Amino acid sequence: MQDKELHRAATRFARRLLGSDELVKDIVSEALWALQRNLGRLTEPGSQKAFLFRVVRNLAYSELRRRGRLPEVPLESVEWQQADPTPGPEEALQGALVLAEIQTALEKLAEPQRTALLLYVEEGLSYSQIAEVLATDLGTVKSRIHHARKNLARRLRPETRQSLGLEE
Q1: Which pairs with CB-CB distance under 8 Å and at least 24 residues apart come from 38-47?
Q2: What is the spatial distance between Cα 93 and Cα 31, in angstroms, rounded to a whole number?
Q3: CB 34: neighbour CB atoms within 10 A?
Q4: In this structure, are residues 50 and 4 in contact, taking their beta carbons and an 8 Å threshold?
Q5: How far apart are CA 118 and CA 58, in angstroms?
Q6: What is the pLDDT of residue 33?
Q7: Contact status, residue 56 vs residue 71, Cβ threshold 8 Å
Q8: In angstroms, how far is the first alpha carbon of the chain from the final one?
Q9: Which residue among 30, 31, 71, 90 is least enclosed by CB atoms within 10 Å?
Q10: Does the pLDDT of residue 48 top 50, yes or no?
Q11: Which of 28-37, 43-52, 73-82, 147-156 is predicted with the least confidence, judged by mean pLDDT?
Q12: Which residue, among 49, 10, 41, has the nearest Cα to 26 in the 3D structure?
């Protein structure tokens, strides 16, 4: 993975965990520095990304513990991708409403479930990479992602679940 791409992925992940940009740059810089110092030990494919995400997660959680609160992620801070680059006004509005509903539901997930799901869906990490990032076993990762999907779907309106093709 290229440096810029790795930096963007780490920044996106840190922003989603912390909910603001105030310390994201510092945390990502510190995590990238830790990655640089440990490059010689990280020889497995994908281990650099997993290591970086683990450091970002640990630093972000330390900051959240210091603040004494769970993160709040404003919708404006999320980088959403649209499938159709030129939707009509109605499609754009409907898409924005669905994304807002998903974001709200995502924010209500338990932190371990939300983190595992974000690493899987948004960052494309494998279950084993997520287990490494979260310092847990593979079964726990599978369980967290399964329950996150279930809880996320449960929090969506029936119309939204239907439009997304989700079963409850």
Answers
A1: 46/125, 46/126, 46/129, 47/132
A2: 37
A3: 16
A4: no
A5: 15
A6: 85
A7: no
A8: 36
A9: 90
A10: yes
A11: 73-82
A12: 10
The two structure tokens encoding residue 138: 């593979």
DSSP state of 77: G
Sequence letter at residue 166: L
How far does CA 21 lie from the centroid of its chain?
15
Q: Which residue type, as a one-letter code, is found at position 12?
A: R
Number of other residues whose CB lies within 10 A of the CB of residue 48: 16
Residues found in the chain: 168
Q: Which two tokens stand for residue 5?
A: 């791409």
Asked if 28 contacts 11 with a C-beta cutoff of 8 angstroms, the reply is yes
E strand or H helix at 167, and its extent? none
d(CA 63, CA 90): 40
pLDDT tens for 53-92 read: 888 888 888 877 776 654 445 545 555 454 545 556 666 6
Query: 3-state DSSP call for residue 74?
Result: coil
Does 71 or 25 have the greater pLDDT score? 25
